Amino acid sequence: ASGAAPGSRNVPPTRYEDVGGMRETIEMVREAVELPITHPEIFKKMGIRPHKGILFYGPPGTGKTLLARAVAHESGAHFIAVSGPEILNKFWGQSEAKLRSIFGEARAKAPAIVLFDEIDSFASSRDAMSESFEATLVSQLLSLMDGLNDLGRVCVIATTNRPSALDSALRRPGRFDHEIEVGLPDAEARLHILKIHARGMPTDPDLDLEQIARATGGYSGADLEALCREAALVCMRRTINLRDFEKRIAPHQLSALSVTTYDF
Ligand code: ATP
Cα–Cα distance between 55 and 60 in angstroms, integer? Predict the structure, then answer.
């Protein structure tokens, strides 16, 4: 995928193998997003309409964005990532034009995946917002999605930590009518995630990641990534001290060391 309208990015090389502990979720995502892109003929033949919009929901840092990037890369789709808070703030005054140009780009470069990260930042219940600017944006997003007739060639993914706060109109058929939960990882999933982030780190052969996976209940993937990064930084910051040498010197030679030190 390529192309770079303002705010869009090229697909980062994220693969399914970079997403840990989500075997079943990846299968669901492949079926809902990748299959219509790579094999549209199956859907045509069976007379099935692929989902236009898919909602990834779950706690922060569980890999929702990572998963969206992976499916875009693996299916070879043009990828446009849009940050919800950014569309509201950075493009203040131009948000509607921005939304139109995003959908225009997606159709022109189809197959394409548009990712609205943290969609709740502008698409919370319209009742609560009454006639606000956000409400106008939601209406526009809905009409742009209704206008998509590309049968799976353009897929819109949205992520949120608060699915219940979303405007209910977004979740009607033909919009974000398919929901995939991305929950906190269990011990087995945490081990997989730790292995991914410890990949390429010079770790001790006796480092037991299983033990760490067991001791990190409640950690998200992002927490586990931060843990690995911090552990690596501590190693880098630490200067090599005498203990490091002592540990590597045979006991009978250590006495020779002290002889040298006190030899006058
Ligand atoms: P938020 O809801 O806060 O936007 P998110 O669910 O979209 O969070 P990501 O942004 O995808 O989470 O995760 C942040 C980072 O944490 C990822 O770039 C990745 O490095 C790491 N991470 C999270 N989940 C996983 C996972 N399942 N496997 C590997 N790494 C993960």
Answer: 14
Report how far residue 126's alpha carbon sits from residue 143's, in angstroms, rounded to the nearest whole number.
Answer: 15
CA-to-CA distance for 29 and 50, rounded, in angstroms?
A: 12
Kindly report the pTM of this predicted structure: 0.83
Instruction: Identify the residues whose C-beta falls under 6 Å from ligand 1.
Output: 19-22, 60-66, 117-118, 159, 161, 193, 196, 221-222, 225
- In this structure, the number of other CB atoms found within 10 A of the CB of residue 28 comes to 14
Secondary structure of residue 153 in the 3-state scheme: coil
ipTM attached to this prediction: 0.98
Distance 128 CA to ligand 1 centre (A): 30
Per the CB < 8 A criterion, the answer to whether 195 and 166 are in contact is no
Closest CA to 17 of 83, 60, 66, 81: 66
Instruction: Say what the pLDDT of residue 122 is.
Output: 78
pLDDT of residue 244: 58
State the CB neighbour count (10 A cutoff) for residue 11.
20
